[in-house]
């Protein structure tokens, strides 16, 4: 990854795939209030994805708009991190994904808000406020589940252990990007450490750290997600909706 | 936050659906404020007949509030009706939610997700309105899960294509608005106020559905066919949403006297048909009724009745999706039990800690 096009595309893909996964919870959440909250976060991610993909399309100047980028690329052309494409699992896995993603997106968008590229700066300024809410929401549930019942503690610890290896990819160095993700790691650690401690959860040791999403080498899950997301759009080439 | 950038197409008519009805919602809101401002004589006198006082308040178009005495049957009728309405919002999320993952553009995905989220919000305010009558949301949800309270039968039909999302918006939300606008003037204050808010949002949803169909009906031949097929399948079930014909309706007369209900099922159904005919023409879609024609004498359209035997079958649980809808809701409730228990345990621990700190 290097130029602004790749950067906007990668961030847009993160947001789009996160939105698609979160929206899968609609009508299935553990409480009605949570159904609304998850839809809200999905809408925020989708809103950011649309701004980022539209901008990526303009930078590319090849006539691709947000829908062409979202619906007409195959999984090998997607640049999202692996974390967002992981299946939702139980509610604990979804909250681990949400919490870690928000703990990365908040410092990322905050840094982006003061980058020299005005469009990216405006997107960062809007999205960081939303990320702050996602982080609060995710952290609250990590604490509730971690320090709730025996069962919820077990599930939340398993979820943290399951998702943790995928967090390392978020901070893969990219010195040429408008914001180098490597510089965001300390802010992430400062957010995550105390929340896990308060939640009575153990922070996993660093071990396996898959990092191929940004290069377009995904898990087996992504092409199923895309097959479902793209099916109708692709069945009617050129149609307006 | 909602990414909701809906805009009407340039060639849509000015009087897109819901415009006139929205005026009625606003009139009901003004009436509600006027009723609140009018002098009420501060409740019944100590030895006054409470039933007579209740009737006087209802007849004077004042609102009954949770603190007021009310006949037990009025309370039960309202609980049944408001709960059924709340359950319909919650179950109604499923057929449309079915298309969120496959919405054909990112803009449509955002609009649909926001719409389904609004329905969850409507469910919550309606449960809150029912709670003012002395029953808890948990009890009502349990009644739904046990199959002891109903939800609107319309949600037991499947959404088979993207056009169904448009047809639900145009026809199902349209019928819901025609049914619900008079409820903005219901004699029970909390329900009337909830309905004003719900109707305003529903009118927006109806426009979105209409716009989906308008786009499809002016699109490729495949899209046009998809739109027509959806209208063909949703038309009669939408007419059935107004309930059985007046002669067979069991709850109507008493509800009219209590000013919970203002118009008969057949009057509302007629109003809906009259509204749809002109809109269908603008959409360029055919209403699937060979006997649909203007009746000069009645100044209304003659139309074919829906199949009420089918309606009764769906109400009894034998529609195409009754079993799936209930299984889905029960599974979501059961799968979330450990999460709700964890939240309660965490809250209890926190309260305990605060108590210790205070001591």
Automatic annotation (TrEMBL), chain A:
Stored SUPFAM superfamilies: Ferritin-like (SSF47240)
GO biological process, alphabetically ordered: phenylacetate catabolic process
InterPro entries cross-referenced by the UniProt entry: Aromatic_CoA_ox/epox, Ferritin-like, Ferritin-like_SF, PaaA_PaaC, PaaC
PANTHER family in alphabetical order: 1,2-PHENYLACETYL-COA EPOXIDASE, SUBUNIT C, PHENYLACETIC ACID DEGRADATION PROTEIN PAA
Pfam families documented for this protein: PaaA_PaaC
Domain of life: Bacteria
Protein name: Phenylacetic acid degradation protein paaC
Gene: paaC
Gene3D superfamilies assigned: 1.20.1260.10
GO CC field: cytosol
TrEMBL record, chain B:
Taxonomy, superkingdom: Bacteria
Location of region: Disordered: 1-22
Gene Ontology terms describing biological process: phenylacetate catabolic process
Gene Ontology CC terms, in alphabetical order: cytosol
InterPro entries found in the cross-reference section: Aromatic_CoA_ox/epox, Ferritin-like, Ferritin-like_SF, PaaA, PaaA_PaaC
Pfam family for this entry, one: PaaA_PaaC
NCBIfam families: PA_CoA_Oxy1
Protein name as catalogued: Phenylacetic acid degradation protein paaA
Organism: Micromonospora lupini str. Lupac 08
Taxonomic placement: Bacteria, Bacillati, Actinomycetota, Actinomycetes, Micromonosporales
Gene responsible for this protein: paaA
